[in-house]
Amino acid sequence: MKEEKILKILCERGHEAYIVGGFVRDIFIEYPSFDIDIVTSASVDEIEDIFTKLNFKVDIVGKSFKVIIVDGIEVAEFRHDLYDENGNVSMKSAKTLIDDLSRRDLTINSIAICPNGKIFDPFNGLKDIEEKIIRFVGDPYKRIKEDPLRIIRACRFKALIDGRFEENSKRAIKENIYLLQNIPKERFRIEIMKAMKIKKASMFFRTLIEINTLFYIFPSIQSCFEFRYHHGEYHEESIFDHIMMVGDFISTKFPLLKLSGYLHDIGKIFSYEISEDGKITFKTHEKIGSKIIRKELRDLKFSNEEVDYISNIIRIHMRRPTSSRAIRKILINLNEMGIDYRDFIRIFYSDMKGKTRRTIKIFSLKDVFKRIKEEDEKEPVKKYGDLPINGHNIMEYFNIKEGPLIGEILDIAMEIILDYPELKDDKEKLLRLIKEKLREEEK
Known about the structure:
With 443 residues, this protein is of the alpha+beta class. The chain is built from 22 helices and 13 strands. A seven-stranded mixed beta sheet has the order 3-4-5-2-1-8-9. A two-stranded antiparallel ribbon has the order 6-7. Strands 10-11 form a two-stranded parallel ribbon. It starts with a helix and ends with a helix.
């Protein structure tokens, strides 16, 4: 393996070298990890010289941070972090492994493994892993003030190991929450997406609530947690518990979709109504939620593509594939949104499954999914460009000029195709049916 070869070469040249950080932690929590970091007593100049002469692929991308990339693996010299009064960090060379480990945030991230397999654990990180404890290295107040984002990281790692905060660390977190207001929002986004690699990422959101922090990130989810009204006849669980269940059911293979699951019903608290007969409704909550989350995601510096994807998933999640016509309509909408129909199936399935009161038998959904797949494979009309007619045909057939009426006629054509998909190859018959439809509307 590459890391073993790098370690061996450094040791043969008289340097100390260790694997550190997340890869080591993940070994002991039995979590898949491929992000290997190496620290060594060699300087960055020595690292560069050694591996360049041996014809390794060497990328000098972080030399000011005393890091060299060797064959895709970060190799860093022992370092200290130096923070100024504005929270900016610079790196200073350190002499020992313990100096390097002491700069890290949590005890569970401050374990090293020697090439011979010996474990260095000066801060009892292994014990904290075994007891599922999140504890800062050294003084928690100092660790947090160095970088307040460590509060969010601590919440993520608590969710990862399904653990609890050490009391002094928890106290330091709660007393320094205010420091988060100075953190650039894009750094929150990075932690959110890393959290989506955790199967039960609901623990991340619940921990943020536990320390009164979620409103800094997703005020909409915080509002769902605070919403205390009944969730309606189809749910025994609260809105907050429902969205947490739905997100947990979505695989970590689809991080943006998983995040969509935790956000899909945030519009409900803004559309809550009780009808005259006492029924609870959440009319158009999907449209309201889609609009709200666009702003929150943009504030968090998600890309335009990510914002569109999540808001569109939320907007379409209430569509029900109850008939062939409904399925064809869904496929058209999904195509317009640029969403794979399989992602719709995943959010639909998780939404149905994420209830304490099941209204649809889970096994019956397989038949629905089969029908969606079959309709998609028929290559139906999925967008206006697939229609057998265009604006020119319409102007010629109806003897009209270019204008908004053409768009209205195309909408009618699409509605007809939904009922009669075989007309996608019959332009003349489709035009005749459109004419009949227009006559009916005039009456």
